[in-house]
Amino acid sequence: MQEAHRLKVYKFGGASVRDAEAIRNLARIVGKNTPQEQLLIVVSAMGKTTNALEEIFHLAHAGQDYAAPLTALREYHAGVAAALLSEAGGQIPPSTANQSHLANLLAQLCEQLTTLTPGDYDRQYDQIVSYGELLATSIVAQALGAHWLDCRPLIRTDHTWREGRLDWPTTEYNIRDEVPPLLLTGPVVTQGFLGGTASGATTTLGREGSDYTAAIFAYCLHAESVTIWKDVAGLLNADPKIFADTVRYPEISYQETIEMAYYGASVIHPKTIKPLAVQRIPLYVKSFLDPTAEGTRIGDCRHAALAPAFIRKADQCLISFESKDLTFISEENLEVIFGALAQVRLKINLMQNSAISFSVCTDFSAYRLEKLLNHLRDHFTIHYNTGLELYTIKNYDAASIQRLTMGRELLLEQRTRLTFQFVCRDA
Ligand SMILES: Nc1ncnc2c1ncn2[C@@H]1O[C@H](COP(=O)(O)OP(=O)(O)O)[C@@H](O)[C@H]1O
Ligand SMILES: N[C@@H](CC(=O)OP(=O)(O)O)C(=O)O
């Protein structure tokens, strides 16, 4: 077995491959690599394709007409592929094999949509929504003249549809067996977000899970570094789409980053950091709009006190459970509540206990909430509020709390030495 030395892993998300010009920009970034460096390129679905596929799947599963969004999706991908070929000025050789690869994938998607059956929503979701990454990588591999690698037989997961849990030993064995020889022949392009079960069904790793895929490959191949190319200057102290006056962290530790991702900083998928930290592989967050700019280095470092970080999680639900007979919330009650939350797969973002009531803040899902109520309404009196926001300030000070809480009615508030969190109504 050959070891991949001096391997870099690049991850390009939806925004960086949203149209032909974006893919040409990607090709310029990749072209800066020296021949001594091997490159594995992980690519997400183009633009908002995953949302479009979710909508198509939802309509198809409900037996409704999905022809219009499916046509739009086909034309979008075929249009980008055609633009890359026609405007390549001879740089990208048209390959019949690759053109038919894309056409085959589109035909497979159409075919699979006609075979959906009632029920079994999450499993069928994965079989359809995964086409976003398959299509995008087909186009990008063609544009780069790179090898197209199907990651699904390599990244082995269990049957937790829409959030496949990794079988690390099998995945590591598969990747180390298959990928190093391919890397010797030039850049390899593969899909983010996808995995496969032992029986060959497709799984997905959770929305925005392509960053995690990059970390999985980097871990298994002992990569030198991972770079995720984003539309921002690096890891900032807040999402610039929500907060004004953001500052960039030039360097930040794995631990700070994992906490920011956990609290909801959507720039990095929360599962990305651990595999990299275990092997001390640095993670660079860089701007595909300004590729030579410094960006952020995430690694094993010590740094001075960081500027407070502001994180908002929207679309939250606050659920409170009260014992029906004024008995205290006990460990036995909590066991029942936690068990039910795990069963319906509602994740706790914040929790608080008082004498006869226990409150949890979770991402809102009407379907999962209904299932939870069915499980627990005989045991507890349950109240819930939807349309809420959860704010977290990491490394807070008085001024940052004042800035964020001013004029807001707080429904729940909690602070530790370094973290201040509150739930309030959606502005
Ligand atoms: N702390 C943060 N620093 C930088 N960007 C952030 C932060 N929190 C949220 N974001 C958002 O993350 C976006 C980039 O992540 P994402 O949309 O997942 O990229 P992609 O899908 O292209 O991989 C930015 O456009 C920004 O709005
Ligand atoms: N395409 C998937 C996976 C992903 O990670 O996408 P992005 O890298 O664009 O966030 C999603 O939208 O959830």
UniProtKB/TrEMBL annotation:
Superkingdom, natural source: Bacteria
In which pathway is this protein known to take part? Amino-acid biosynthesis; L-methionine biosynthesis via de novo pathway; L-homoserine from L-aspartate: step 1/3; Amino-acid biosynthesis; L-lysine biosynthesis via DAP pathway; (S)-tetrahydrodipicolinate from L-aspartate: step 1/4; Amino-acid biosynthesis; L-threonine biosynthesis; L-threonine from L-aspartate: step 1/5
Catalysis performed (reactions):
L-aspartate + ATP = 4-phospho-L-aspartate + ADP
Instruction: Give me the Gene Ontology terms describing cellular component.
Output: cytosol
Q: What Pfam families does the annotation carry?
A: AA_kinase
* Stored InterPro entries: AceGlu_kinase-like_sf, Asp/Glu/Uridylate_kinase, Asp_kinase, AsparK_Bifunc_asparK/hSer_DH
Q: What EC number(s) does the entry state? A: 2.7.2.4
According to the UniProt entry, its GO molecular function terms are:
aspartate kinase activity; ATP binding
Q: Which GO terms describe its biological process?
A: homoserine biosynthetic process; lysine biosynthetic process via diaminopimelate; threonine biosynthetic process
The protein depicted here goes by the name Aspartokinase
The organism named in the record is Hymenobacter roseosalivarius DSM 11622
